[in-house]
């Protein structure tokens, strides 16, 4: 018993030791130690990598910061050097002025060297020009691709240069770094080459005559910016700081001003009267009298045109600004003012040069106005949106071009409006929308045309041609929906009626296009009439083939009353004499159906009627009536039963004496003149009944 208890206690202890790992081999323990050491090394390595990455990242940030500081210091150093250069130039200028006051002769020589328009000695002029050209050549050697673009003119020299940053004018996103070279007559923009320090590639060259400078208001973080306007583009640049931006603005304005003054002095020099060559002495005694008369009347060539006025000198630049700011009226006003000033002036060489500059701006202005009227622009706003550009083109003497562009713009607008119409629902509803859109646009265009081109009678023929082409476009859309889709004749008649009513609205402005819509629709309407005529003939022949010549029994008084009303609407007023007792009608179903179908065809055809369709409608009616008349006459000849023969005679009497006169009368009312063919058909039908015993078919 004790042994078993001991064994039981020892077994439980052994089990607990095994569970707690008390009995483990040396191999397991070594493996666990190696695993712990590896985990420790892994964590240590990860921490070391993190520290190294952090240190390198900090060093990278510090290096970038140092580079930024170095760049800023370089810009500051460049700015300081520029200031020092300016101070030295100012001091030199002051010393030169002092020396000029001390030695007037030396000052006169120096002034002659500084002004290219004053007479120079050959040696001084060559030395001055050589120094300026050498400076410009040295700086421009750093710019690739500009040597062939810059003409080697003796008066060209460098005024100012510096680094700028270009931004996108729409999204204000940085585009590139550039270096600008300002010369006395133009501005050169070059982009920095990425792998060559101090080297640039040519980007653009702008003459100062067509350049406008606009200050851009600071809007953080976008600041220290200015805009250059060069028709038809504009560019935005950012200076390093506000001071450099101010220098750029000032030096650009000063250089442009000096350019204008230099041009003004050149024009004055050219406008000075030159001494006329002395004529050879003449021994003719009568020449003295002629010379005296010529002296009394000064020639027009001796008159000098004063082009030194400030507004004339600034006219090309003002025109550029007006074009850039879309002030078309202001630009045309300036041109009118110049034309008025030069109207009675002789055409000298300075005037020709001024005209050449102004004509270039006129071409630019014309191109902008043409673009304003192009169909690529937005077509919203209706015809009035084009009035501004059209009126200015007319003032520029471009009436024909203005008329052409205005009509093209309106044609595109009308076509776009028609295309945007959604084809949904009934055809008649779509036609109402189509007519409203088209004829309203046509009416508005006509009124605007009359307003814009009131004094240009020669343009009205172009409008008529345009209206015809627009009407053709409308008819194409109309026919595609009405006739190509095989609508019923009643629907087609209603649609044509709507189109005619809208077309009559144009008579308010004295424009009648009804004959055009008739000419364009005649082919489709003829096709519709002939198609519907064939349908009626086929239906009539089918009913004739099943004809039993029996009276109609309508079963109810309501049905009989409805038939009376239908026949009364068809124009048959004496239908009661063909009705019997107990809802019986003493006519064949075939004859009644034929009467209703023929009168319905006639009513719808009269809605479509115009003179070009007269013979088509008349021939269609004759063909339809002949089918019924010939069938009745043939049945009358062939029928042997006396009772049925009497019934056929009664139906024939209804056709000849009631239906045919009603058709003839209604046709004459709708058309306005009698139809001889219908009268001949009725008379011929009477002749066919002269010999009722004959069994010969007339078909």
UniProtKB/TrEMBL annotation:
- Keyword Transport on entry: yes
Q: Where is the composition biased (Acidic residues)?
A: 286-303
Name the Pfam families on file: Exo84_C, PH_EXO84, VPS51_Exo84_N
Q: Name one GO cellular component term.
A: perinuclear region of cytoplasm
Does Endoplasmic reticulum appear among the keywords?
A: no
The domain of life is: Eukaryota
Localization, per the record, is: Cell projection, Growth cone; Cytoplasm, Perinuclear region
Segments carrying the region annotation (Disordered) are 1-32, 263-303
Specify residue ranges for compositional bias: Gly residues.
1-12
Q: Which SMART domains match?
A: PH
Q: Which GO terms describe its biological process?
A: exocytosis; Golgi to plasma membrane transport; protein transport
- Major subcellular location class: other
Where the record annotates domain PH, the positions are 157-257
* The family this protein is said to belong to: Belongs to the EXO84 family.
Its biological purpose is as follows:
Component of the exocyst complex involved in the docking of exocytic vesicles with fusion sites on the plasma membrane.
Name of protein: Exocyst complex component 8
């Amino acid at each position: 018993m004790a042994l078993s208890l001991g064994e039981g206690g020892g077994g439980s202890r052994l089990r607990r030791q095994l569970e707690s790992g008390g009995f483990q081999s040396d191999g397991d323990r070594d493996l666990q130690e190696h695993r712990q050491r590896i985990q420790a090394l892994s964590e240590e390595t990860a921490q070391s990598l993190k520290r190294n990455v952090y240190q390198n990242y900090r060093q990278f940030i510090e290096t970038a910061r140092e580079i930024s500081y170095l760049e800023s210091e370089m810009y500051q150093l460049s700015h300081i050097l520029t200031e020092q250069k300016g101070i030295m130039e100012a001091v030199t200028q002051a010393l030169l002025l002092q020396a000029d006051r001390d030695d007037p002769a030396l000052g006169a020589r120096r002034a002659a060297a500084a002004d290219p328009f004053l007479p120079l000695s050959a040696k001084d002029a060559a030395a001055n020009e050589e120094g300026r050209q050498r400076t410009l050549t040295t700086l421009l050697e750093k710019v690739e691709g500009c040597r062939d673009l810059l003409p080697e003119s003796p008066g060209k020299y460098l005024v100012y240069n510096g680094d700028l940053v270009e931004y996108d004018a729409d999204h204000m996103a940085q585009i590139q770094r550039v270096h600008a070279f300002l010369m006395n007559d133009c501005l050169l923009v070059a982009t920095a080459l990425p792998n060559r320090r101090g080297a640039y590639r040519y980007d653009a060259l702008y003459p100062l005559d067509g350049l406008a400078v606009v200050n851009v208001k600071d809007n953080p973080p976008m600041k220290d910016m200015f805009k250059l306007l060069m028709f038809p583009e504009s560019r935005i640049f950012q200076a390093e700081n506000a001071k450099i931006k101010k220098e750029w603005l000032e030096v650009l304005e000063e250089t442009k001003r000096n350019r204008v003054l230099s041009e003004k002095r050149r024009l004055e020099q050219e406008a000075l009267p030159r001494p006329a060559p002395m004529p050879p002495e003449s021994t003719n005694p009568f020449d003295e009298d002629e010379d005296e008369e010529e002296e009394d009347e000064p020639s027009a060539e001796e008159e000098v045109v004063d082009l030194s006025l400030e507004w004339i000198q600034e006219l090309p630049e003002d025109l550029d600004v007006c074009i850039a700011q879309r002030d078309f009226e202001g630009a045309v006003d300036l041109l009118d003012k110049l034309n008025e000033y030069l109207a009675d002036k002789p055409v000298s060489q300075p005037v020709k040069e001024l005209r050449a500059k102004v004509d270039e701006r006129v071409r630019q202005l014309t191109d902008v106005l043409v673009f304003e009227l192009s169909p690529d622009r937005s077509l919203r706003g209706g015809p009035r949106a084009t009035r501004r550009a059209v009126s200015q083109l007319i003032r520029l003497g471009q009436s024909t071009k203005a008329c052409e562009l205005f009509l093209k713009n309106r044609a595109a607008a009308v076509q776009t409006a028609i295309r945007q119409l959604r084809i949904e629902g009934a055809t008649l509803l779509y036609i109402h929308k189509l007519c409203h859109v088209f004829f309203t646009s046509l009416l508005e265009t006509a009124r605007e045309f009359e307003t814009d081109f009131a004094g240009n009678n020669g343009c009205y023929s172009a409008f008529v041609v345009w209206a015809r082409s627009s009407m053709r476009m409308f008819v194409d859309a109309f026919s595609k929906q009405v006739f190509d889709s095989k609508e019923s004749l009643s629907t087609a008649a209603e649609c044509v009626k709507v189109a005619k009513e809208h077309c009559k609205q144009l008579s308010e402005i004295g424009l009648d296009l009804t004959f055009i819509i008739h000419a364009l629709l005649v082919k489709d309407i003829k096709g519709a009439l002939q198609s519907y005529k064939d349908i009626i003939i086929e239906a009539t022949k089918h009913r004739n083939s099943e004809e039993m010549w029996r009276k109609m029994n309508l079963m109810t008084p309501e049905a009989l009353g409805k038939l009376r009303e239908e026949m009364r609407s068809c124009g048959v007023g004496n239908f009661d004499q063909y009705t019997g007792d107990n809802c019986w009608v003493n006519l064949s179903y075939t004859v009644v159906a034929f009467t209703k179908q023929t009168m319905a065809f006639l009513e719808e055809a009269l809605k479509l009627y115009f003179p070009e369709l007269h013979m088509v409608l008349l021939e269609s009616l004759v063909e339809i009536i002949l089918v019924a008349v010939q069938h009745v006459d043939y049945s009358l000849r062939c029928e042997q039963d006396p009772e049925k023969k009497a019934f056929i005679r009664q139906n024939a009497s209804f056709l000849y004496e009631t239906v045919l006169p009603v058709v003839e009368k209604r046709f004459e009312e709708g058309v306005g003149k009698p139809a001889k063919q219908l009268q001949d058909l009725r008379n011929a039908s009477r002749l066919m009944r002269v010999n009722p015993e004959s069994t010969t078919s007339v078909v």
